[in-house]
């Protein structure tokens, strides 16, 4: 969160996750003048996951500048869904949940396989 670039919203966000092989990967939001093309903290976290050896996310946590838990936005739930371990735990404003609870009936890579 301290690395965030958020001059437009002034809302720094930090995200961290534990990977299947025991690494901690993190991310922060990176905004730009177009506003709409902002990278959420989850976007840079997933990039860092891939750049540091890949793998799957086992546990995920996202915070605002005061350390309060933040819910991932809709787009970022999709990003997390792609890279989740099957039993990934996600901290939410209402306690620990699974990806299926925060993105039920998700579209995912398995649906592309079905139509090939
Ligand atoms: N933001 C995140 O980084 N992750 C979220 O899940 C929610 C929103 C960022 C995007 C933007 O830079 C700022 O928070 C305000 O929306």
UniProtKB/TrEMBL annotation:
PROSITE patterns: CYT_DCMP_DEAMINASES_1, CYT_DCMP_DEAMINASES_2. It catalyses: cytidine + H2O + H(+) = uridine + NH4(+); 2'-deoxycytidine + H2O + H(+) = 2'-deoxyuridine + NH4(+). The keyword Zinc applies. The active site is at residue 42. GO terms for cellular component: cytosol. Substrate binds at residues 29-35. Gene3D superfamilies: Cytidine Deaminase, domain 2. It comes from the Bacteria. Its EC number is 3.5.4.5. Zn(2+) binds at residues 40, 73, 76. Its cofactor is Zn(2+). Keywords: Hydrolase, Metal-binding, Zinc. GO terms for biological process: nucleobase-containing small molecule metabolic process; pyrimidine-containing compound metabolic process. Residues 1-110 form the CMP/dCMP-type deaminase domain. GO terms for molecular function: cytidine deaminase activity; identical protein binding; zinc ion binding. Belongs to the cytidine and deoxycytidylate deaminase family. This is Cytidine deaminase. It comes from Pseudarthrobacter enclensis.
